[in-house]
Amino acid sequence: MGAKSIAVLTSGGDAPGMNAAVRAVVRSGLSFGMKVYGVMRGYNGLLNGDLHEMSMRSVSDIIQHGGTALFTARSPEFNTPEGVQKAAATCRNLGIDGVVVIGGDGSFRGARDLTGAGVLCIGIPGTIDNDIACTDYTIGYDTALNTAMEMIDRIRDTTESHDRCSVVEVMGRRCGDIALHTGIAVGAIATLVPEIPYDFQKDIVDRMKAAQATGKKHFIVVVAEGVGKTQEITERIQKETGIESRATILGHVQRGGSPTLRDRVVASRMGYHAVELLQKSVGNRVVAMKGEQIVDFDITEALNMPRVFDENLYRISAKLSI
Ligand SMILES: Nc1ncnc2c1ncn2[C@@H]1O[C@H](COP(=O)(O)OP(=O)(O)OP(=O)(O)O)[C@@H](O)[C@H]1O
Ligand SMILES: O=P(O)(O)OC[C@H]1O[C@](O)(CO)[C@@H](O)[C@@H]1O
Ligand SMILES: [Mg+2]
């Protein structure tokens, strides 16, 4: 006897591809004969009763859009024992026995708590940061990478024309994956990530001077948001190398835009997998990608897994950009 009535919500920072996941959950649920509710603005919708029944057509024409048609929120009220009980009561009153939560690690903690309060929850990793340890891939990451790369290519045109150095900050509070991969894709002379301490002289100035000695005249330095101090780093580069330098913080442009094919397809597969679990009355799981396979893990185990930064790729990137 699987879940008969389910709900789907998006929570935490939005990510391109969340709509594809919502669409997949709604249409898979309906095709399994379930009643499906769309919850507005993350956990807030469960607290305020702001949710409505979805049809096949409720999710038409959203797969190609960034953002989330269900809106999203960070909900301090839900993040209390009383908030979790109130959300569970909303589910009970409407007969909802399963909830699919599309979001990041914080949202999964919420999903674990809500499962503890008697509502089967499944998490789907949706965040541009790729900072969820249990999965090789989070929905939105590929679109964000491509956006960051395209933006830096544009910055490079003007950087090259002026023989300058551009220091570009990309998103990633605790995770350097966006910085590492865009750094490789744009040929950054240095990439700074929160996972690896850096030596300003050796890792930035000496590398720039060595490249300058072989004829290089313009430079890109990529800095992850979690490293911070982007303006300060830029001024120091100019002072210590004599190369005119400019700082750009890419910011939320990385969170928007039409999702790439990869984000749409992975989101669709994860959405279907989440509903299959609920159909088997399985809850407290996070859907994940391992290689090209869609798998799932216990939420608590998933949250306790250590994140592994690809230090080997980081070393390779330093060898290639010189
Ligand atoms: N420990 C927790 N227990 C219960 N609920 C939580 C917990 N942590 C977070 N939440 C709920 O999940 C919401 C989203 O969490 P958070 O703001 O950390 O974003 P996230 O899901 O990690 O996404 P991202 O970091 O990618 O923006 C919170 O506003 C809160 O309602
Ligand atoms: O939009 P907000 O709430 O300022 O959050 C920004 C954060 O969200 C993310 O985009 C996704 O977690 C981070 O990279 C960034 O630090
Ligand atoms: Mg998070």
From TrEMBL:
Catalytic-site annotation from UniProt: D129 (proton acceptor)
InterPro entries, per database record:
ATP_PFK, ATP_PFK_prok-type, PFKA_ATP_prok, Phosphofructokinase_CS, Phosphofructokinase_dom, PKF_sf
> Where the protein is mainly located, per its record?
cytoplasm
Amino-acid biosynthesis recorded as keyword: no
Annotated metabolic or biological route of this protein = Carbohydrate degradation; glycolysis; D-glyceraldehyde 3-phosphate and glycerone phosphate from D-glucose: step 3/4
Q: Do you know which HAMAP family this protein is assigned to?
A: Phosphofructokinase_I_B1
Q: What is this protein called?
A: ATP-dependent 6-phosphofructokinase
UniProt organism field? Neglectibacter timonensis
